[in-house]
Amino acid sequence: MNNFSYHNPVRIVFGKGSIAKLSKLIPSSAKILITYGGGSIKKNGVLDQVSKALAKHTVIEFGGIEANPQYETLMKAVEICQKQSINFLLAVGGGSVLDGTKFIAAATKFTGGDPWKLLSENAPVEEALPIGAVLTLPATGSEMNCAAVVSRKSTQEKFGFINNKLYPQFSILDPETTFSLPSRQIANGVVDTFVHVMEQYMTYPVAAPLQDRQAEAIISTLLEEGPKALQNPSDYDVRANLMWCATQALNGTISVGIPQDWSSHGIGHELTAFYGLDHAQTLAVVFPGVCQNQFEQKLEKLTQLGQRCFGLNGNVRGIAHQTIEHIANFFESMGVPTHLSKYGVDANEAAKKIEARFAKRGGKIGEHGNLDAKQIGLIIKGRA
User: Fold this and answer.
1) Measured between alpha carbons, how far is 133 from 143 in angstroms, rounded to an integer?
2) What is the pLDDT of residues 154-185, one digit of tens each?
3) In terms of CATH architecture, what is 183-381?
């Protein structure tokens, strides 16, 4: 096991009726900007619950944050925060709203020029507004980490950033808020969570059996509960388990002391930037391709996952190949296609665009640092 330092300050308030506790979690003197997405929280009653809980607080609303939060939209919220002297942000929604809110928190206090530098140049976050969250779509784990990903429409770019000042002070997780999600978002959440685990697990062994088994426990739970959520969206226990899986997948516990990959995310971000695919859709396409391209490097972990989570037997290489097939089949069974043609994207065109972008940036990705632009192009072509 590698050396590590771990700290996570986020308070999780979990369970039905938890939104009512908001008034005790945010200082009474706070001037709050509530951020949300397309307005579903108005239809499903979540915003009413939040408003009731914060009836004695000063609140301003900002809606319209996209499924892939756009820099241009978020900067409008930054302007509001600065003009209205907002001193607390409450994100009500899924990972995209949370990610966008983290950017708003950092950009509002940024003094180094264009806040896009926070993403494109990794400019330091010296100060940020405090954040709280009410999660309504479990997928990204953003409710219990300090990372965010933001897109910029004008340049067709998508970047992430990480900073310890962007941890939410608290996150409320009420599974009942997820009952009204459409099947596409349910499926996306499961796939997103699955690949988050894989980016930390599917590398190579470093004698960390506890982290391996924690990761495998999340995967096994997703395999069991994911299909149930599509069949019965209002099953509280199923939705509670999926919600907690998403949080556990990316709050840092399964990644301590082990190598990580994240190449599927890096490549997938480009598919979103160029073609507008959902984040989870890009992961469903790219991850099997990365496993195939890096088959020898990931052989031991592919075999281990196949044996422990898919119950596969046989020779090592056979199990590893079958594991990749089982993963892709699971994504397909959840209704998330694993080939670009299903999304109307030409793989050869996408490969050229994405290969050129990685070539311009230089460097290599992957846990071994051996995925260059050419290999990335081959991965995309292979997902036609």
Assistant:
1) 7
2) 888 888 889 999 999 999 999 999 998 999 99
3) Up-down Bundle (1.20)
